[in-house]
Amino acid sequence: MPEEATRRLLKLFGMAVTDLEDQTGTLQEHIRALGPRPHDAAAVLELVEPWLAQSREVTLRWMEMTRLIVESQTKTQAELLRLIGDGRAAGA
């Protein structure tokens, strides 16, 4: 059932977004705690890596949703154009 696939993708997308929000909050707290002085690149990477991974997850889920929407729209558009074309041909 298409609606179930959509619900599943929306749920996964929503969870990825809220996880990213959590990661963003954690990262911002760490950044504030570090202050403005220069820091070891490895330590900064360790802080940023979870955020980057979650950001990537959001992008992948977003692309899944986009693909689903575009496929649905494209299929419906093609069907409508066929109907319009059939109607014009019958009226000619």
Detailed description of the structure:
This protein has 92 residues and is mainly alpha-helical. 91% of the residues lie in helices and 0% in strands. It contains two helices and no strands. It has helices at residues 2-34, 41-91. Helix 1 (2-34) runs antiparallel to helix 2. It is rod-shaped, with a radius of gyration of 23 Å. The model has no long low-confidence stretch (mean pLDDT 92).
- Low-pLDDT runs: none
Shape: rod-shaped
Question: Pairing-aware structural class of the strands and helices?
Answer: mainly alpha
Which H/E pattern describes the elements?
Answer: HH
Oligomer: single chain
Helical residues, percent? over 70%
- Overall strand count: 0
Range of strand content: under 5%
End-to-end gap: 39 Å
> Quick one: biggest sheet?
none
- Mean pLDDT value: 92
Gyration radius, in Å: 23 Å
